[in-house]
């Protein structure tokens, strides 16, 4: 049975409203009928249990997160900074502990970096360097660049001595210094072996055969050290060999003032005096030449040109050979290859990708390849020909052999001098002091010479009287005078040569006439019989005889007998003993 409103068409309520008709589906709209709308639902009085469970779990999760945040996060970071990701912070940097922010535009490197507090990374490759470390650390202490702005980086590789132990010891000493200005910044010590087989002696390291492979391994070591030590806050990188003997304390500032991308000083080494005193050392800093470029075109792809060897005649201008001790130390020279003893480079050079090629780059490797690569990428590379540092002298095998020979000669000379001194000492002890005896003999001879004139003068006076008596005796003209013969000449048989005597004062000789002679006697000055005129030698005396004045009869003969086979000329009151008659005739006083 249908409802009551279904029987009457006027009381049917339309299901949907119609804009153009007042009826819907044939049923009239009436306000007295029951209105039923299927699109309207009444809200439930309580939520279902599943929805309540979800809300509970959500609240518990929020509570747990808040607890964990309060325990682990709250003490270390402000809540606002954590949730806002620093959007409300007044600064420009991210304020997270694990985030580092660097503005690389502030680490480009300038000419006065010490005023801008620019940091320097000092890189030092080490291999069997134990003997050189004390000298190296003395140089570090003397640097005038602020020590706290210098970071040290060492790479110890393929060492067989106590290099690492001595390095740590010296670092601990310098960092524990009571003067805080002596302390350096960050210090890194790296260990990495590269299988370097070349020995560290001079002949092996600088021998031509080992250069190519040795340079490539050294390039690897430099790249490892640089890549592990370079930090974003470094403005400069300074490479320094540990065996530099002498360098200015201000070398960092001196090189930095030029404001070049890559700069190197001149490097010489001292030599012993017998080798010339000094010598250019680092020949790896040079300008390119047409001859070298032509040579490079003829070599294999992996060939490496090394300077200073006759095998590669490049005829390049070397920085070392242009040194003038009195030249301007700030004078610059554009170069293509650089040596590795002392290099100051801006850190941006390495950040641009320049490195030490461990392969043949334009027929060069390591530091020379670094210079060529820097030039290729447009960086400035200069050298200072008159700014010199001095490398330690390391003798070669030839130098060592020569020094051994010199040492052997010195020892032999000292031994010979010692033997001579010992021999002289033995002779002195055996025969007495020969020098003292000679002085005694010399004094005795001087006394004889002084006393002889007085004795000769007295004897001459006595002989003169006897000669006068003989001259007064009567005799035939031209007959020899007895007194004259006795006082004038020695017997013909006397040993040696006869010495004629001339008439002395107060007496007449063989050739003189006696004063006051009888009539018929020879005239005054006439020679006696057998005597030549003018006092010539009588009695067969040789022509070489020297007349003696004032010598008594028998005086010369007695002296001649005392000195056998000697001619004794007597001249003007001095006695001279000659070896023979010929020498005696040449004596001039």
Automatic annotation (TrEMBL):
Keyword set, alphabetical order: Golgi apparatus, Membrane, Signal-anchor, Transmembrane, Transmembrane helix
InterPro entries, A to Z: Mannan_Polymerase_Subunit, Nucleotide-diphossugar_trans
Annotated membrane topology: Single-pass type II membrane protein
Main localization (coarse): Golgi
Chain intervals with Gly residues compositional bias: 532-541
SUPFAM superfamilies xref list: Nucleotide-diphospho-sugar transferases
Keyword tRNA-binding in record: no
Compartments in which it is found: Golgi apparatus membrane
Molecular functions (GO terms): alpha-1,6-mannosyltransferase activity
Annotated family: Belongs to the ANP1/MMN9/VAN1 family.
Protein's name according to its UniProt entry: Mannan polymerase II complex ANP1 subunit
Organism of provenance: Sporothrix schenckii (strain ATCC 58251 / de Perez 2211183) (Rose-picker's disease fungus)
